[in-house]
UniProtKB/TrEMBL annotation:
The keyword Cell inner membrane does not apply. It is an enzyme of class 1 (oxidoreductase). Its cofactor is FMN; heme b. This is L-lactate dehydrogenase (cytochrome). Residues 1-76 form the Cytochrome b5 heme-binding domain. It comes from Australozyma saopauloensis. Its EC number is 1.1.2.3. In the N-terminal section; belongs to the cytochrome b5 family. In the C-terminal section; belongs to the FMN-dependent alpha-hydroxy acid dehydrogenase family. Its main location: mitochondrion. The lineage of its organism: Eukaryota, Fungi, Dikarya, Ascomycota, Saccharomycotina.
Length: 554
C-alpha cells in the first residue's frame, strides 16, 4: 500500500500522481490529453484531488479513459498527514497578502477555467507550484495541504451558516423559492455555473419575462370538477405536459447528481431528458430508472461519427425513447458570471479516445473540437440510418428553420436558446412559438412534427400558455437543479408537485378541463411585442412577495 509521502514526491509535469478516493493514479501521460488543460491536474500533483474530481466526472471516467498500468493501487488512509490550522492574520495583513497574491497570480492560469479560453500566454499552476514545493521541501516544517482547503471567505462562512439554517421545505411555495435558497447556500462556483447566461444575459432574462406579456382569456360556466393534465409526447403517455430537460454537471449541486432527477421523475411520472455532459455516467443514470419511466437523450454530436453512433445505439439499447440533437451550440457561449467564479468544467468522459483533438488553445476550443461545428442539415439522413427512435432538433430559433425541419422529416423540434446561455439577444422561445403556430396552421402543417419549448418557465401558468400556443411539451431545467441542490430528491419531487398544483388551479380558473381543450383562444399575445411600462408610484408602495426566511442562528 502506498503512503502519502510516496505520492507527494510525484508532483511535477514529468512525474504526476494524484489521489482520488484513496486510490493513486499516474496521470503523467494524460496531462496533454486533458480537455481542461494540464494546469488543473498539476495543481493537485502529488496530492488528493477527490474534491475537485467528483462533482464533474462520472464514476467510470478513470476506468474508461486511463490505462490499467496507470492505476497504482490504494493509499494508506491511516498515514494521511493532519492539517495544521493556520493562525488568524490581522485584517490589514490579510488584505496586503491578498493584494500580493493577486499580483503574483495574474500571469497564472486560473484554477477554475470553465468553457473559456483564458490560458493563452499564462503559466500553469503546476509549474509555479512545483517550484514552490521544491523550495518548501527544504524546510522540515513543510506540510502539504492534501485537502487543498483555502481559508474561508466571509461569503463562504455565510453560505455554510445558511446551509445549516435552510428554511423548512414546507415553507417552499414556488419555484422561485428554491432558487432563492440555492443562491444563498450553494457553493459560489456551482451557483455561477447553473445560473449564468451569455454576455449581458438579456436572453436569459427575457425568456422568463416574455411569459408575463402573454395574458389569459378565461372561459366561465365550464365543468372543471375534474382536471386532466396528462398528454402524449413522442408517443409516450405521461402525467404532465412538462419534462426535466437536460442540464450539465448535476453533481455540482448534489453528490448523486442526475440520479436524483431520475428518481424524482420516476416517482412523479415525469419524462427525463438525460444530458450528454452529465456528472454521472449514462449507465449509472439508466440503472437508477424504475424500468417504466420514459427517458430521452440530449445529444451533442461528436466530430468522430463513430463515437456518436456508439453513444446513440447504446442509449437505444438501454431504452431511451428519443434523441434530442443539440443544434444551437457549435461553440459554447461566453458566460461571464461563470468566468468570474472560475469553476472548471471537465468533459473528458465525452471526448472519445482523445486522438486528433486540439488541446493547445484552452478549454473552449478543446470542447469545440469535441462538438462538431460542421454539423449540417444533410447529416440528418445519417442519423436516421443509425436509430429507429424519434429524432428532435433542440435549439431551433427561427420560424424558417422550424419549417425546414419539417422538410427534413424530423419528428420534432425544441424552440430553445439554451436557457440564454449561447447567443444573447435572441427572441424568447414563447415569442417564437407565438409566431410559429399561425404559420403552421396557415400552411396546413399542424401535426407534422411535435413542437417543444424550454427556457424561462417558473410557473404552472407558463406551461399552460405554451400548450395553448401549440407546444407539445415544455422543458424545465434550472428550477429542478436548484430544488435538487437544496433539498435533494424531496426538493425535486416538491418542485414537480408545485407545478402540478399550480396547473390544476389555473386550468380550473381558466375554464379548461384538460390539455386537449387548450388552444389559442385561451391566450392573448397582443402585448408580446410591447415592453411593460414601469409605474414608479405604484412600484414605490407595492409590497413585493417575500422569499422563505432562513432559520434563526440561535
Amino acid at each position: 500500500m502506498l503512503t502519502y509521502d510516496e505520492v507527494s514526491a510525484h508532483n511535477t509535469k514529468t512525474d504526476c500522481w494524484v489521489i482520488i478516493h484513496d486510490k493513486v493514479y499516474d496521470v503523467t501521460s494524460f496531462l496533454g490529453e486533458h480537455p481542461g488543460g494540464s494546469a488543473i491536474i498539476l495543481k493537485y500533483a502529488g496530492k488528493d484531488a477527490t474534491k475537485a474530481f467528483d462533482p464533474i466526472h462520472p464514476g467510470d471516467t478513470l476506468t474508461k479513459y486511463l490505462a490499467k498500468e496507470c492505476h497504482l493501487g490504494p493509499v494508506d488512509p491511516a498515514l494521511k498527514p493532519k492539517k495544521v490550522k493556520k493562525p488568524k492574520k490581522a485584517k490589514e495583513e490579510q488584505k496586503q497578502a491578498g493584494q500580493e497574491k493577486t499580483a503574483k497570480t495574474e500571469d497564472v492560469v486560473s484554477e477554475f477555467d470553465v468553457e473559456y479560453d483564458e490560458q493563452e500566454g499564462k503559466e500553469a499552476f503546476g509549474e509555479r507550484a512545483a517550484n514552490t514545493q521544491s523550495k518548501n521541501e527544504e524546510s522540515d516544517n513543510y506540510e502539504y495541504d492534501y485537502d487543498d482547503d483555502d481559508e474561508l471567505t466571509e461569503e463562504d462562512k455565510a453560505r455554510q451558516q445558511n446551509k445549516k439554517n435552510m428554511p423548512n421545505i414546507s415553507h417552499i411555495y414556488n419555484l422561485h423559492d428554491f432558487e432563492y435558497v440555492a443562491k444563498h447556500t450553494m457553493e459560489k462556483t456551482a451557483w455561477a455555473y447553473y445560473s449564468s447566461g451569455a454576455d449581458d444575459e438579456i436572453a436569459l432574462r427575457n425568456n422568463h419575462l416574455a411569459y408575463q406579456r402573454v395574458f389569459f382569456n378565461p372561459k366561465v360556466l365550464i365543468d372543471v370538477r375534474n382536471i386532466d393534465l396528462s398528454v402524449s409526447m413522442l408517443g409516450a403517455k405521461t402525467s404532465v405536459p412538462f419534462y426535466i430537460t437536460a442540464t450539465a454537471l448535476g453533481k455540482l449541486g448534489h453528490p448523486d447528481g442526475e440520479k436524483v432527477l431520475t428518481r424524482a421523475a420516476a416517482h412523479q411520472d415525469v419524462v427525463q431528458m438525460i444530458p450528454t455532459l452529465a456528472s454521472c455516467s449514462f449507465d449509472e443514470i439508466m440503472d437508477e430508472a424504475d424500468g417504466k419511466q420514459t427517458q430521452w437523450f440530449q445529444l451533442y454530436v461528436n466530430s468522430d461519427r463513430q463515437i456518436t453512433k456508439q453513444i446513440v445505439q447504446h442509449a437505444e439499447k438501454r431504452g431511451v425513447k428519443g434523441f434530442f440533437i443539440t443544434v444551437d451550440a457549435p461553440q459554447l457561449g461566453r458566460r461571464e458570471k461563470d468566468m468570474r467564479s472560475k469553476h472548471i468544467e471537465d468533459l473528458s468522459h465525452v471526448q472519445g479516445d482523445g486522438e486528433g483533438v486540439d488541446r493547445d488553445q484552452g478549454v473552449a476550443r478543446a470542447i469545440s473540437s469535441f462538438i462538431d461545428a460542421g454539423l449540417q442539415w444533410s447529416d440528418l439522413e445519417w442519423f436516421r440510418s443509425i436509430t429507429d427512435q424519434p429524432i428532435v432538433l433542440k435549439g431551433v430559433q427561427s420560424v424558417a428553420d422550424a419549417l425546414k425541419a419539417i422538410d427534413y422529416g424530423v419528428d420534432g423540434i425544441v424552440l430553445s436558446n439554451h436557457g440564454g446561455r449561447q447567443l444573447d439577444l435572441v427572441k424568447a422561445p414563447i415569442e417564437l412559438l407565438a409566431e410559429l403556430n399561425p404559420v403552421l396552421r396557415q400552411r396546413g402543417l399542424l401535426g407534422k412534427l411535435e413542437v417543444f419549448i424550454d427556457g424561462g418557465v417558473r410557473r404552472g401558468s407558463d406551461i399552460i400558455k405554451a400548450i395553448a400556443l401549440g407546444a407539445s411539451g415544455v422543458g424545465i431545467g434550472r428550477p429542478f437543479l436548484y430544488a435538487m441542490s437544496t433539498y435533494g430528491e424531496d426538493g425535486v419531487s416538491k418542485a414537480i408537485q408545485i407545478l402540478k398544483d399550480e396547473m390544476v388551479m389555473n386550468m380550473r380558473l381558466l375554464g379548461a378541463p384538460s390539455m386537449a381543450h387548450l388552444n389559442e383562444s385561451f391566450v392573448d399575445t397582443s402585448a408580446l411585442g410591447r415592453p411593460n411600462v414601469d409605474d414608479r408610484l405604484f412600484t414605490s408602495v407595492y409590497e413585493p412577495l417575500a422569499s422563505p426566511p432562513f432559520k434563526s442562528k440561535l
